[in-house]
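User: My instructor asked us to take a sequence, write out its structure as tokens, and then describe one feature of it. I'm not sure where to start. Here is the sequence I was given:
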Amino acid sequence: MFENIKILTQTFGPSGREGKISDTIRGLMEGHVDEILSDAMGNLICVKKGSGKKIMLAAHMDEIGVIVTYIDEKGFLRFGNIGGLPPFIILGQRVRFESGVTGVIWYEEDIDNIKNVNLGKMYIDIGAVSREEAEKLVRVGDMAVFTADTIKQDGKIISKALDDRIGCAILIELAKQNPDTDNEIYYVFTTQEEVGLRGARTAAFGILPDMALAVDVCDTGDTPRCKPMAVKLGEGPAIKIKDRSVIAHPHIKDRLIELAEGNGIPYQLEIMKDGGTDAGSIHITAGGIPSGGVSIPTRYIHGTAEMVDMNDVENSVKLLKKFVESKF
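Assistant: Let's start with the prediction itself. The structure tokens for your sequence are:
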């Protein structure tokens, strides 16, 4: 499974430019489902047909990034955000454009206090010495993503873009295990989650599932002096109770808890004060769709070195398999 995680995290795919990651996932899903299609928003929808309930499993395939907004006369690139970008975390990081051009993010030298650093005072340096030279390599509107290796160490995965390529990897692994069920399963790899949960809304409207789960990452409360949260790395997948976008449907939440406890799968309960998931747009689509979430505890979300525990990843697959195999 780690090899798929590595492939997924290292594939280019910021919000709105998911073509390459979609093609990669399509290749990994072929042969494990009955039908694969894409919709107008670019969502990749992989269907395992059945006569039972229609279950939508959503993992977003887009990642955070930057977009060039202006190139100055000395060849430095001003940029805007694609998704949430904490200024202190991205400072000094490398970014890579789809063409392979690499740059480094830095800040204006006349800032006296590092606390004054914000995106409007930062730039990308690609080594160009003029606007003309820079424009041979990049143009206004080009997007870039952060660069960082994907490594496995002592059962942990450290990488950029685990939000939410780890969810994508889990759905791929679940499809490979071919759950024994009459339910019709929709493995949906959504677009533009990081900029407003957009792709999932369109996908859900087209599918009209009986129920849905968002498979995404969530924060942890186990690092020094962090905000209190009842989720820790390595103690099992987190069953969503609520986040800022959704209050999980009680029947979905309760079924997940029942399945975890009945099958000896470790689990945690997640209440995330900030952020949302695809469930937030799915549950208010087409008259309402009962929705919940299975989240993978992740440290340093929206950084270039996010961290997950493989035990949590593997137990997420087990829990999802039990869920889709259920009689509803």
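For the description part of your assignment, you could build on this observation: The longest helix spans residues 162-177. Try explaining in your own words what that tells you about the chain.
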